[in-house]
Design brief:
It is built from 14 helices and 25 strands. By secondary structure, the chain is of the alpha+beta class. Among the domains are: 139 residues, no CATH class; 71 residues, Alpha-Beta Plaits, CATH 3.30.70; 42 residues, no CATH class. Strands 1, 2, 3, 8, 22, 23, 24 and 25 form an eight-stranded antiparallel β-sheet that branches. A four-stranded antiparallel β-sheet has the order 11-10-9-16, with no helix packed on it. A four-stranded antiparallel β-sheet has the order 13-14-12-15. The longest helix is centred in the first third of the chain and has 24 residues.
C-alpha cells in the first residue's frame, strides 16, 4: 500500500508542479492535466523541437526524456546549480511544485542567451543525468543479462546477451535502495568478497502491476532461491546449504578459506536480501497450484504430459565409429567445448553391440542425436535415463530421507499457490519447510509428531505468495528446482524477451543468426 501511495505522490506531484509552471509560463494551467497534450505544451514552452515528442513514445527512453525536460525547466528558471539540477532529476515530484509555487520567474528560452558551463561541469551533468536515468530504467523497465553457463542450451547459449523486461510481470520495488548504482551485489575488483549495498533500509516486497503473469515455458530471470546465505568463496556456483550438508554447519561457518577448483579462496558468510541474490535464468515449467511429476525425463503437469522444449538437451551415450575423430564430429555438430570437455566414458552392459568401445556420455538435442545416427559417424546412440532410485536422494530437493528421486524420475510435488491451503504432514513437511520458514518468515517446529507454526499446532499452511517450478533446458547440466525447490514470486526479476547480442566464445565469433531471437521461444 505504501508503494502505491508513493507512486501516486510522484505522479500527482509532477502534474501539480506542471500546473503552476504552465501558469508562470503564460499557458493555461488545465493543459498540464491532459495526458499527451501536456507534453506537447511543455515542449513548446521550453522551445524544443516537435521531434522530441517522438522520443516520448519509446518505452524506457520516455523516462529519460521526462527527466531531461525537468532539467530544461530548471534552466528556464535560471537555476543552473549542479546540486539543484541533480535534486530535480532525483525528485521531480518535489522540484516541479517548488519551481511553480515560489517566487522564481520563468524566462522564455527563446529570449535567453545560451548558458555556458565548463567542460568538466558539462561532463559531470551528463554522467549524473545518465546514471539516474539508467538506474530508473534498469530497475523498472528493462535490463540486460548475460548467459554465463550452459544450463539453458541449446535454447539459450553461453555468450547470449538477453533483453529482460521488468514490465511483463510488473516492476519489483528495490528492497535495499542504498547501493552502488548499476552494480548487483558485490563490488567490482573485490573478488566477490565485498557487498555493494547497505541494509540500513530494508523495505518489504512489492510489485507494481505488469503486462501479464508468468506463463509456462517463459524464460524467466529470478533471484537464486538457495542464495539467502552465501559462501563468498563459491558465490552461487555452489550452495551454502549444500556445503553445510556435506561439511557440517560449524565447519562452513568457521572456514576462513574453502577449496575452489584446487585453489584455496578467501571465504566469508553473507546473508543476502531477496533483491540482491544472484540472478538465474531458467524456463518456467510448473505454475502455482499445479502438481508436477517427472517420469523417465517426461514432465507431467496435473497427470498430463507436456511438450519438451524443442532445443532441450538430455544426456546421450554415443559409441563413435573408431575411424572418426569424435571431437571434430561434435564440434561440427554444434556441441560446445564445455560439453565435449565434460563428456565421460560409460560401458553399457546391456548393449546389444559386441564392441569394447565405450559410450561417451554428453548432452545432445534430439536433432543432434538423430544426425549422429544418420551420418554413420556413430555405431550407436542411446538416451541415458536415471532410473528411480532405491535410496534417499539427499542431493536433490527436498534433501530429506524418504525421497528416492532422481533428476529423470522426480516427484510428485504440489507447487504452492497464494491463498490455497497446503495440507501438511510430517512426511511431506520437507517439501514446504523453506516456504514456511525462509520465504514467508514463520517459526516452524515439529514436536512429538505435531507440526507447530509460530507456536500453534496445525495441519495446514496457506501461502502468502505464488510459487513456480523452474528447469533448465539442458536437463542434465542445470541447477534448477530439482535441486533447490520452488521459486517464490518475490524472487522473480523479469522475462527474457530477446537475444540482443551473442558471442561464440569457443570459436571467437559473433553469432549473427541469434541476434533478435525470441528468448522465450521453446
Amino acid at each position: 500500500m505504501i508503494y502505491d501511495i508513493l507512486l501516486i505522490i510522484y505522479l500527482v506531484g509532477s502534474v501539480v508542479g506542471l500546473w503552476f509552471v504552465f501558469k508562470k509560463a503564460g499557458a493555461a494551467p488545465w493543459k498540464a492535466i491532459v495526458p499527451v497534450y501536456n507534453i506537447v505544451v511543455w515542449l513548446r514552452l521550453l522551445n524544443r523541437k516537435w521531434s522530441w515528442y517522438l522520443w516520448f513514445l519509446i518505452p524506457a527512453i520516455n523516462i529519460f526524456m521526462f527527466l531531461l525536460m525537468v532539467v530544461e525547466t530548471a534552466k528556464a528558471f535560471r537555476r543552473f546549480g549542479f546540486w539543484e539540477q541533480t535534486f530535480a532529476v532525483i525528485f521531480p515530484w518535489i522540484y516541479l511544485p517548488l519551481a511553480g509555487l515560489n517566487g522564481w520567474e520563468f524566462h522564455d528560452p527563446r529570449n535567453e542567451p545560451p548558458h555556458k558551463v565548463s567542460e568538466a561541469r558539462d561532463w559531470l551533468d551528463a554522467i549524473v543525468f545518465a546514471l539516474v536515468a539508467a538506474v530508473i530504467i534498469r530497475g523498472n523497465v528493462i535490463e540486460f543479462y548475460n548467459i554465463p553457463s550452459s544450463s539453458m542450451e541449446k535454447s539459450l547459449l553461453t555468450g547470449d546477451y538477453l533483453l529482460v523486461s521488468k514490465c511483463h510481470y510488473g516492476p519489483r520495488v528495490t528492497m535495499t535502495p542504498l547501493a552502488l548504482p548499476l552494480v548487483h551485489n558485490v563490488l567490482p575488483f573485490s573478488g566477490g568478497q565485498r557487498e555493494s549495498f547497505l541494509r540500513w533500509i530494508d523495505l518489504p516486497y512489492h510489485r507494481y502491476p505488469g503486462l501479464g503473469k508468468v506463463e509456462r515455458f517463459d524464460a524467466v530471470v529470478f533471484g537464486y532461491p538457495d542464495g539467502d546465505t552465501v559462501c563468498t568463496a563459491w558465490q552461487s556456483n555452489r550452495s551454502y546449504h549444500d556445503l553445510v550438508r556435506e561439511m557440517g554447519r560449524e565447519a562452513v561457518l568457521n572456514a576462513k578459506q574453502l577449496p575452489v577448483n584446487d585453489m584455496m579462496v578467501e571465504n566469508h558468510i553473507r546473508i543476502r536480501p531477496v533483491d540482491r541474490r544472484e540472478n538465474f535464468v531458467k524456463r518456467c515449467i510448473g505454475l502455482p497450484g499445479e502438481s508436477l511429476k517427472i517420469v523417465n525425463q517426461q514432465v507431467f503437469i496435473n497427470g498430463r504430459p507436456i511438450e519438451q522444449p524443442r532445443e532441450s538437451q538430455h544426456t546421450y551415450g554415443v559409441m563413435f565409429n573408431q575411424y572418426v575423430s569424435p571431437i571434430k564430429v561434435l564440434d561440427d555438430l554444434g556441441v560446445s567445448q564445455e560439453a565435449i570437455g565434460s563428456a565421460y566414458p560409460l560401458y553399457l552392459v546391456d548393449s546389444a553391440i559386441d564392441s569394447t568401445l565405450p559410450y561417451f556420455c554428453l548432452p545432445l538435442t534430439r536433432s543432434m542425436a538423430n544426425t549422429l545416427r544418420e551420418n554413420q559417424t556413430a555405431v550407436d546412440v542411446r538416451q541415458v535415463i536415471m532410473p528411480p532410485s532405491s535410496e534417499d536422494s539427499l542431493s536433490l530437493f527436498p534433501h530429506a530421507e524418504g525421497y528416492c528421486w532422481t533428476v529423470d524420475n522426480f516427484g510428485p510435488v504440489l507447487i504452492p499457490a497464494k491463498g490455497v491451503p497446503l495440507q501438511l504432514t510430517v512426511e511431506n513437511l520437507p517439501l514446504y519447510r523453506r516456504v514456511i520458514e525462509v520465504f514467508e518468515g514463520n517459526r516452524l517446529e515439529v514436536r512429538d509428531g505435531k507440526i507447530l507454526i509460530n507456536g500453534k499446532e496445525t495441519r495446514q499452511y496457506t501461502p502468502k505468495m505464488d510459487y513456480y517450478w523452474m528447469m533448465g533446458d539442458n536437463r542434465h547440466n542445470s541447477a534448477d528446482s530439482r535441486y533447490w525447490g520452488f521459486v517464490p514470486e518475490n524472487h522473480i526479476v523479469g522475462k527474457a524477451i530477446r537475444v540482443v547480442f551473442s558471442v561464440d566464445k569457443d570459436h571467437k565469433k559473433v553469432r549473427w543468426n541469434r541476434i533478435l531471437k525470441n528468448a522465450s521461444q521453446h
